[in-house]
Amino acid sequence: METNPDFNKYMDRYYDFSGQWESPSRCGLKIVNRKDGKLLAIATEIYRQNPGTPVTEWCAPLASAIMKDFKSSPDRFIFIEHTPDLGSKLTFYGETFDLVKFEEADGNLRNPSWQRLTPGQVDDLMEG
Amino acid sequence: MKFKLIYPRWEKLEGQTIFNLPPHGPVVMAAEVPKHVEIDFTDENVEDLVIDDSPDFVGISMMLTTQVRRGWEIADQYRAMGKKVIFGGISTMLHAEETIQHADSVFLGEVEGRLAEVFSDFSRHELKKVYNFMSKPPDMNLIGPANRDILKKDLYYHKGFRMVDLFHASRGCIYDCYPCAVRYLGGRGFRPRPIDRVVEELSQMENNRLFIVDNSLALDTEWEKELFRAMIPLKKKWVSHTIEDKDEVLDLAAQAGAWYVYQAVFDTSDYIRNRIKQYHRYGIAVEGTILLGLDNQTEDDIKRLIDFLLEIELDLAEFTVLAPFPHTKAYSDLLKQGRIFDFDWNHYNAGRVVYHPKHMSAERLAELYQYAWDTFYKDEPQTMKMFNLINKVVAREISDGTYTPRRRDIADLSFGKKVTSLT
After folding, report:
1. In terms of CA atoms, which chain B residue is nearest residue A3?
2. What does the domain layout of chain A look like in residue ranges?
3. Second label for B66, Cα 20 to 30 Å away, from A55, B274, B348, B351?
4. pLDDT tens-digit series, residues A79-118
5. What domain count does chain B have?
């Protein structure tokens, strides 16, 4: 179940982060500076290429770190979780996108909730 | 220093044959405890726990999610008595944030080369809240023989028949399977033990029957072949998870004493049918492990799967329902979709439904789980199928001179408790 190593329209760089219990971790990342001034981040789970914590399990700290690294703020930040199609026989390893909403506390994001998106909806959000 | 090491009890699945195997985590941990420390081990699944004693230090080793609540309860009682309590083991790692609330310390990761520091800190009253080695696996050369001397061995007999001992030849896994947390626990790589260290440990084990608990033996062909070649002279008989489907590997496995394997049966394909036949050709029996409740299963799929299991002549079958353990993709997906309705960890025994399945109600899945057990074992009960498997291994042991007769002196005991008169 290798992730396609090629970057694609939803992932154009790797992002290294300190995961749960400070595990060195890595995800794919796409940053879009939207016309409306908002910053959209797509974090991709890269499975075997991620040595540490999965994106979903570290969603709020990861989103907070990306938001700060790219000088955004909770009111101007949109976060999408992406799991790529692994070509597995099991349907639940297909490609998914989820818009993640958070509560804000002291400039950090917490308590994530997920809303499934279609690729078309992701493209619309990237356009802004 | 007296160190009381406890393995908490958990509630066994209703209607299932109960087998208590000697636990593996505590004996691996015990091998690393400094020599000046006296270990007093209690496996609460086979003996009563006495809490009004006075150990210097208490350790709680937990493997299953269904152990954590009992582990926390024990810790709370000892801490109320002023004792320091440290937790370790697989389910400590899976439930670390909650476990910390009941602990003086939690140990995360693998123990080799690390416990001298813990006991030294304890002696100096400087125990750390967290010992975190999650992303720092030890040098595999450091993993020596487990310390099975802590076990009260007579408690792991059923009517005079000894249970298998647990043993491991590797850690980690290259796969990222949907219901499994190994990627989180053991990293995303395969870490085999050096063969000479494996043989060293196997040679010291007096039990001829083993369960090799590695996640999968089918992860590195050359290592797997080398392992089996090295095991042949030891004449052990063993159970394991999947073995690679290459004839050369299976032939070596059979010579090395492969008794039966756990093989996941996830569909009704010819691949599975041929896989079972291939094992049988080499005299290796198969216990199918069948996970029910995945999102790609309808009610009809489950019924077809059970019919298929009867056709392919599995030696045994074990049915479970999906339990979304923390730090698995199953947990992430179901959590994201708001489908988990029960977070009582005592219910995560893979026999209860704790989430909303995609194609049926939770109640219907629970019924199908029961239907699966009843249907598969309708014509030949589980105990009879197990008896057949034991007969096969006994025949092999008699032929190669490794057979140890049933112990008549404890034939009226099952895991330390009286069950019947001696026959």
Report:
1. B176
2. 13-127
3. A55
4. 999 998 877 666 677 899 999 999 999 889 999 999 999 9
5. 2
Task: For chain A, count helices (H), then strands (E).
Answer: 2, 6
Query: B120: Cβ–Cβ under 8 A, 6 or more apart, which residues?
Result: none
Same domain, B64 and B200: no
Same domain, B306 and B341: yes
Those residues whose C-beta lies under 8 Å from the C-beta of residue B108, and which sit 6 or more positions away, are: A21, B88, B92, B93, B96, B130, B131, B132, B133, B134
Instruction: Give the pLDDT confidence score for residue B183 in this predicted structure.
Output: 80
- Residue B423's pLDDT is what? 45
CATH code for the domain in which residue B194 is found: 3.80.30.20
Judge if B89 and B35 occupy the same domain: yes
This model of the complex carries an ipTM of 0.80
Residues of chain B with pLDDT under 50: 422-423
Residues B313 and B216 in one domain: yes
Model pLDDT for residues B133-173, shown as the tens digit of each residue: 988 899 999 999 999 999 999 999 999 999 999 999 999 98
Distance CA A102, CA A77 (A): 10
DSSP B45-95: TTSPPP-SS--SEEEEE--SGGGHHHHHHHHHHHHHTT-EEEEESHHHHHT
- Nearest Cα of chain B lies from the Cα of A98 at a distance, in angstroms, of 9
Which CATH number belongs to the domain containing residue B108 in this structure?
A: 3.40.50
pTM as predicted: 0.91
CB contact under 8 A, B333 and A92: yes
Where is the domain boundary, B96, B119, B134?
B134
Query: In terms of domains, do B117 and B203 share one?
Result: no
Q: Which domain holds residue B45?
A: 2-134
* CA distance, residue A115 to nearest chain B CA (Å): 8
pLDDT level of residue A4 (50, 70, 90 thresholds):
low
Q: Does B56 contact chain A (CB < 8 Å)?
A: no
Determine how many CB atoms are found less than 10 A away from the CB of residue B396.
17
Residues in chain B with CB shorter than 8 Å from the CB of A23 are 134-135
Give residues 85 to 104 of B whose Cβ lies within 8 Å of A.
96
Residue A69 pLDDT: 97
Structure tokens at B298: 């309808």
pLDDT tens for residues B13-51?
877 778 899 999 999 999 999 999 999 999 999 999 999
